[in-house]
Write a sequence for this structure.
């Protein structure tokens, strides 16, 4: 099956700093990538959808200026959490979708962010 | 609105069969997925149903009734490694997935 990687797998940072998370599709071209956030014992919540070469579409309640998404190529999307605060501590998961008409999303292993 | 209901926790015995039920409400529907998620890990795909009926894949089977807004995941010959959360997820429109909070399954010896 298709493989999606994320880097880093975990990160600890100080409040006020920015953190960049990379999501890569390793063996397929991802026309669409998704960013999710999951707080402990809660469901995954979609943050934004990004298509290569265009601006990301953010879900209601997600600050686009705080969570910067760049989908620079068909194999790479990045999420930057700017001026991170403790309440941003969460498990961030990306997923990628390949060919049009293919409904399956392939998930990355996730990045656990802890903001001190 | 959109909503998914599934039991919060279930316990079953190794070697047994367990059925995890899911009911959903949505105005737009483009398929239903079941994912398995171990603690601290990303979800992994188990099954996808877009038409009514039963889809069987090894020890796992998934059923869908669109008219009833109902699905279930059936796990046979339970193994200890099957202890995980099972997420009922529906797809609305072309891309968006709506996740339930999951059913935490504990398999006991």
């Amino acid at each position: 099956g298709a493989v999606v990687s994320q880097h880093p797998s975990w990160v600890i940072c100080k409040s006020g700093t920015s953190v960049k998370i990379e999501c890569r599709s390793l063996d397929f071209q991802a026309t669409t990538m998704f960013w999710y956030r999951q707080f402990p014992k809660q469901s995954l919540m979609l943050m934004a959808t990004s298509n290569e070469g265009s601006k990301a579409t953010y879900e209601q309640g997600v600050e686009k200026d705080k969570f910067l998404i760049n989908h620079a190529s068909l194999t790479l999307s990045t999420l930057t959490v700017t001026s991170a605060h403790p309440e941003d501590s969460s498990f961030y998961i990306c997923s990628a979708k390949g060919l049009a008409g293919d409904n399956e999303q392939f998930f990355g292993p996730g990045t656990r962010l802890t903001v001190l | 609105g959109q909503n998914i209901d599934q039991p919060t926790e279930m316990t079953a015995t190794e070697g047994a069969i367990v059925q995890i039920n899911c009911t959903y409400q949505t105005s737009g529907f483009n398929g239903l997925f079941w994912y398995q998620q171990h603690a601290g890990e990303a979800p992994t795909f188990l099954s996808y149903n877009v038409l009514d009926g039963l889809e069987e894949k090894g020890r796992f089977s998934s059923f869908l009734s669109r008219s009833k807004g109902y699905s279930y995941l059936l796990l046979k010959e339970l193994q200890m490694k099957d202890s995980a959360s099972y997420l009922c997820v529906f797809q609305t429109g072309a891309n968006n997935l709506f996740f339930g909070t999951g059913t935490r399954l504990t398999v006991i010896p």
Observations:
- Chain A has a mean pLDDT of 91.
- Chain A touches chain B through 21 residues (CB under 8 Å).
